């Protein structure tokens, strides 16, 4: 009976872990989707490997990188760090020129927006 009880507890723990990981994955997806939408709607200019790109082009490029490289972005912070802040080809950081002319590296800009998103949005 004692072995059966331990087995049941282990199964319950595994089930809870699986459910929590699924919830976490959904939250990560929601946050990445938010960041991609934020980028697309920003009307900022993105500098990638010395070339200028529109905000829509940047969002499309990062969505492609995320789709192909999800294994490097298990969390939204990893998405920013590993995919959305620098070129995987050259290693050069992405730069953003905002509508008001402010120049900022994308890592800082996206990290600030993620912090804002986390304090204002509730996961569904």
Automatic annotation (TrEMBL):
The lineage of its organism: Bacteria, Pseudomonadati, Pseudomonadota, Gammaproteobacteria, Alteromonadales. Residues 1-25 form the signal peptide. Keywords: Signal. The keyword Signal applies. This is DUF5329 family protein. It holds the Pfam family DUF5329. InterPro entries: DUF5329. It comes from Pseudoalteromonas rhizosphaerae.
């Amino acid at each position: 009976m004692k072995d059966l009880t331990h087995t049941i507890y282990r199964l319950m723990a595994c089930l809870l872990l699986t459910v929590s990981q699924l919830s976490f994955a959904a939250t990560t997806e929601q946050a990445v989707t938010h960041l991609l939408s934020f980028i697309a709607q920003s009307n900022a200019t993105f500098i990638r490997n010395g070339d200028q790109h529109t905000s829509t082009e940047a969002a499309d490029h990062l969505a492609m990188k995320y789709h192909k490289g999800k294994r490097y972005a298990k969390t939204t912070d990893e998405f920013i760090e590993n995919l959305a802040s620098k070129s995987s080809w050259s290693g050069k950081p992405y730069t953003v020129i905002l509508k008001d002319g402010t120049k900022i590296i994308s890592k800082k800009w996206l990290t600030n927006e993620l912090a804002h998103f986390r304090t204002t949005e509730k996961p569904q």
